[in-house]
Structure formats: structure tokens, C-alpha cells
Amino acid sequence: MSVRSSATASVRRVATLAAATARPTTERDRERRRIAIMCLPFFALATVAGFVPLAMLVRISLAEETVWIEGWSLEAWRTLATTAEYRWVAWNTLWFVGLATLVSVALGVAVSHVLEKYELPFERAVVAAVSFPIALPGIIVAYLIIVLLGRQGLVTNAIAVATGQSALDLASATAITGLFLGYVYSLLPRATMVLRGTYAEVNVQAEEAARALGASRWQTFYHVTFPEIRPGIVAAAILTFRSGLAIFGTVLILQSHRVLTLQIHDEISVGSYDPDIAAAIGLVYVAFIVAVTFVGLRFIENEAVEI
Amino acid sequence: MSEVVLESLTKAYGDEVAVDGVELTIHDGEILGVVGPSGCGKTTTLRTIAGFETPTQGRVLFDGVDVTHVPPEERHVGLVFQSYALFDTMSVRANVAFGLKMQGVSTAERRKRADELLALLDIADLADRRPTTLSGGQQQRVGLARALAIEPHVLLLDEPMTGLDAKLKTRLRDEIGNLLADLGVTALYVTHDQEEAMAMCDRIAVLDDGTVEQVGTPAEIYRRPANAFVANFVGSSTLLEGVAENGHVDLGFTELPVAAETDGSIRVAARPAAFELGEGQIEADVTNVTYLGDRTQLTATLPDDTTVTLHADGSDSYRVGDSIPLSIDADRVHVLESD
Questions:
Q1: Is A50 in CB contact (< 8 Å) with chain B?
Q2: Would you call B287 helix, strand, or coil by DSSP?
């Protein structure tokens, strides 16, 4: 069969499928139509809000003239690859968000364990307290950190009174620790949300069997619970890490650590206007996120634990 | 193996009393069945022995040692669940060796002992498989091997056969019963299936509403039920109202030479086998016929309007509306002590 006749046959098959989907006669056709109806709005939105802007970013990053987006140049990518400051920002972002993810997921495991395993008084209030930061804008989180750890902050002044030290010396809202606290506070609800769902699926009787066989609570968690919740931990880590990379409002206000989002902001700000570099950073960011997601999902597969 | 004693065991959840003053002894090497309807407290009793529930009152003793407040991991009990509760992320061998690992047994030794148990339960060829790839019967064998591996003081089985198909259940029941008897395991066998309990257990405790209604051998429970609840729960019984007088019981439509402790109004329990069909002075009207292959189960009305369950041979000649003659074998009815 020639290439041309093969292509014609493929087009014909697609046309037949489209016609059957539009005017279904079998249950399979109707199912296909339902899938199409439910997914089309998403793909339309993804095209307009995602794929087209991404293509624009590619074009901007390769433009010689960035105001009218004309000509072609690899200069932005060359600058990104050879400038030490950008590598430093990337490393800053990775270790800081990585550490915040680690702490948030660890705290999320503890909170989910308590929420799912034990009957708590005021459980709804606890759930609300844990989950509400998810709805807070980063700017508000930054403000909360200032109210707590700033020069007039509650905690700062409480420690100052208790230790006799100066509140000015103790203020840590705009130190990296204050920013870290803000990150963890924002990320914890995301980790908990995923982990609670995973915990609800844990085989409680297998845990009881382990304890009857002589395992302490910690050994039971390590040998039985942890392997069961590991896919949830990976999923929570992916979600949390991605969300952490995207935090902007908090870091914009507190400014104590230079991360990727702040760098992009600076690249497109008046005074240092480099939209091609900002576009290149954005593309690296997207590629990195996609890669992290795929690599992370490979770890979700369970592995046998041998004797 | 140990003797397990429950002393006045009571477990309440707020106002809800799940177990109410249960007194039970599981003798060394004995399989004690605990039967009763849903919510009667049998699983709570088992969980209290395992240490997952702390009794509101009473004590749990292993060989005379009070373990009431000892945590589960220090009680040395084997647990077998209806849902198998195997460790899905481990191989079958690792499942069986898990308890030994927790005891600090060397890798070589626990591997050897796990393989011995798997061979004993006839599943040696499954050692390297994951539990999720096994059938229900195979998974339950793994669960049993895992529980036996630690040579527990007592083996606690919570509805282990529920969920298996009838043929497999019967085969596994016989195999497990023989294995536990051979090993001399002290076991508590919780089930709602009285036939299973009768087949497997040395003695049976019948629970209702958190209290023990009767403890005895399967034959004692079946032939001499302590009260109407036991008579109805274990097997099917017809309760007949009568008046006892001078070594006889007058049922109104017939008289039986049955001795009661006291004269006056009494109730007697009659199993289907107590009714002899085909001859006798009593006329019963058939209201339902169920053909079961090896026998035919009839529901009929006695002259005093009592509904009775009868077993006939596997004949399909009975019809609804038939009037059949029958007699009652006085040796097979039992005067109930109380309600």
C-alpha cells in the first residue's frame, strides 16, 4: 500500500469515527460522544490558556526584537545557560522548595495519621484550621508572617520579653526562616489533602495483624502503613513541590530569598526588561515540572518488600 | 499454647454495652467457637483478647497472668481475619516470616520456618508470589501460616471462612480443623455460621446481646439448648407450649412422656429430626415445600397453629395444602430451662 492510499484510509477512518461520534448508533459510539462532550471544554481551555501562550513563550524566547517579536535569536537561551546568577537562582529555588516540600509532606503525614486514625474532639475545626491556608493569597500569608515574626510581631515581642533581647534583633519575618514558615504554612494543606485520601484506604486490619505479630506502632508504620501510603506521599510531594515552585506573593513581599518566580518578575519589570529571558526561564520551568511529574509517578508503583 | 480466661469481661462504648460480664475459659489446646448474631459482641470479645480493646471492667488472663492492660504487640496472639489482612507489599514468604522478624529471628531461620509452615499448609509453591495474585482460599492459608509462625499463646480467628465459596469452605474447614488439632493450638473461633463452629470447635459459646447464653460441646448445644434463643439460633427448632404434670407434657394436641423439673407451663424445643413423618396421630397442614436435593424441607402448621419445620427425604411428592400424619419422638425434644 502506498503512503498516499494509507493516508487516505486513515483520514477515512477518522471521518467515519467522527461521524459515528456525532450521530451514534451503538452504545460504544454514545460512550465516545459522552467522552468528547465532557473533555472538549477542557481541551478548548487548555489550548487557549495553556498551549497557545506556551507557543508564544517559545517565540518570545527566540525573538531578536522582543517588543514586536521579530527576527530570530538564541541569545536569551545563551544568556540563561552561561550566567552564573541564573544557576544560583535555580539552585536556591530547588533546595528551598525541596526542603519546604519535605517538611510539609512530613507534617502532612502526621496530621493525616491523626485525622484518619483517631476520633478527635472538634475534628471539623481541626480540618478547617489545617485546610484554610489553601485559600489564602500569598500576600496574606506574608502579612501573617510579618504580624507574627516582624519587628512588632507577636512572637518576636513575646520572645523579647521572655529573654530580654531586642525585638529588632529577634525579628525574622524577612529572614529566610520567616519565608520558609510561610511556604510550609501554604503547602501543608495541599499535602494533607492528598494524604488524607490515601490514609482512608489504608488496611487497618493489616496494621492490627502486624501489631499482633509483635510489631510496635513505629514498626507497624514503617513496615505496613508506609508502603501503603507511599503512592500518596509521592503524589503529595509532586503536588506540593509544584505548588511551592509557583509561590510568588509571599516571596514578593518578604523578599528574603531569590527564587525563580521572583526572578521572572524582575526580568519583566520596568528597568530590567528582558521578556525573552523571562520566557526562556518560564519554558525551563514548565519542562522541569512536567519531568518531575513523570519521574515522580514512576515511584508510585509499589515494590515488594522482602524478608 | 496457653489457657485463656475471661473474667467478668465488660466493654461499653458510652451507653452502648457491647460485651456484658462475659465469663469464658479457653482451655489449653482447645478450639472454642463463639457464635451469635451480628452485634452480639463476639468480635469485641476477640479484639479484647487481642488487646485492641481495653475492657471497661473485668480481666483477661493468659495462663493465670493478667494481660488486661498489656499492649497487643506484647500479648503474643495470632490473628486471622475474614478479609485476610495480608501485607500486600510483601511476598507470601515475607508475610509468614514477619512475626519472626519482629522477634529478631535471623533471616536464615525465619526463612526456614516460613517455608516449613507454607509446606504444612500446602502452599509452598506460592512463597514468592504477592498476596494479591492469590485466590481467597490461598490467601487465608497464608494468613493462618503467618499467625501460626510466632507460635502464639492463642490463635484468634475472626470469621475466617466467610467470603469463600461453599465447597472450598468445607474443604478448608476440615483441613484447618485437623491442623489446629494436630498442633494443639488454643484457639478462639468467631463465626456467625453455627455449622462451621460445630464442625471445627471442641466447645461453643453462644452469645446474644453481649452475654453468654450457653457454653458446651456442639452436641450439648444442639441437643440441650439452654433457652429459646440458643434453640433457635443453633439449627432450627420449633418451640412448643405445654403443661408438665407427673412426668408428662401435655401439648394440647398430643401428650409426650417427657420429664420436666417442675410441673406447670413449660416450653419444649423440637428439632426437625424429632418429628417422624408418615405415621402418627398428629395431622399437620403443609404450607410450604422447599426441595433441597438430598432432602425436602417442609413448613407445616400443627393443630394448635404452631408453625413447624420438618425434614423429609428427597421426595418431591409433597404439595402445599397436603395434610400429613406425624408423631413426635419424646427422646428428641428438650425442655427449656429458661428464656
A1: no
A2: strand
